[in-house]
């Protein structure tokens, strides 16, 4: 959800999935922040979510679009969400298929009972909190399981 106090920007360049957007110098979104661009094409409205990948100077950020940029034009308004892309986590998300934005593809969002939402970029857990496992991952392919067994979790 966009914070009304965050300054919005505008699209200045689109090359495939790469979108350059201009923001006020004092209101540049941080790296990994989600940006929303609303497109109107042939009477249809689509929202393209982008993730800030780089600050390129002079109030410009370079973002990667996570959906097709067809119909995106220079000057289109860019909304700074102020937060990174996050995905649902917890027991309620198991057994479903999601896109990169954490939206379910096989059911409606109302049917998902996630315990929480976590950002896709976060710090790894401290090394001393990791619990190594010695459980073999069965691939179902006998040759691989025999000659090169894999341990669960990497």
Explain this structure to me?
- It is a single chain.
- With 154 residues, the protein is mainly β.
- It folds into 2 domains: 9-84, Thrombin, subunit H, CATH 2.40.10.170; 85-154, no CATH class.
- It is 4% helix and 40% strand.
- The chain has 1 helix and 10 strands.
- The chain has one helix at residues 142-147, and strands at residues 9-15, 18-22, 33-41, 44-57, 60-65, 77-84, 86-89, 116-119, 136-137, 150-151.
- It has a 6-stranded antiparallel beta barrel.
- The longest helix is centred in the last third of the chain and has 6 residues, at 142-147.
- The radius of gyration is 20 Å and the shape is elongated.
- The mean pLDDT is 89.
Put the structure in a nutshell.
The protein has 154 residues and is mostly beta strands. The protein folds into two domains: 9-84, Thrombin, subunit H (Beta Barrel), CATH 2.40.10.170; 85-154, no CATH class. The chain has one helix and ten strands.
